[in-house]
Amino acid sequence: MTSDKGNKLARALPRTSADDKLGTNGRLDSSSQKRIGDQLRAMYDELMQQPVPDRFKELLDQLEKKRDGSR
């Protein structure tokens, strides 16, 4: 995964002033929440496209066999 993918997205999105980011209740406004969500999706999208490593598949198979054997 490239580490600058999220940074490119952050630079492409418009910035808001610091006063607009936090309301009186201490929560992020919807614009900030959307930007964070977009950045997280961009960062993890590539990871989600990767295949499950063979070792993980082997471990899952072992767990499945143990579970089936204990019934």
Can you characterise this structure?
- By secondary structure, this protein is mainly alpha-helical.
- It has one domain.
- The chain has helices spanning 5-12, 18-21, 30-48, 54-69.
- Helix 1 (5-12) packs antiparallel against helix 3.
- The longest helix is centred in the middle third of the chain and has 19 residues, at 30-48.
- It is elongated and about 55 Å long.
Write a brief caption for the model.
This protein has helices spanning 5-12, 18-21, 30-48, 54-69. The chain is mostly helical and 71 residues long.
| Average pLDDT score | 79
Q: Using only CA atoms, what is the Rg?
A: 20 Å
Largest sheet: none
Oligomer: single chain
Strand elements, count: 0
Question: What is the approximate shape?
Answer: elongated
List the helices and strands and how they pair.
Layout: H1 5-12, H2 18-21, H3 30-48, H4 54-69
Helix pairs in contact: 1-3
Annotation keywords:
mainly alpha, 71 residues
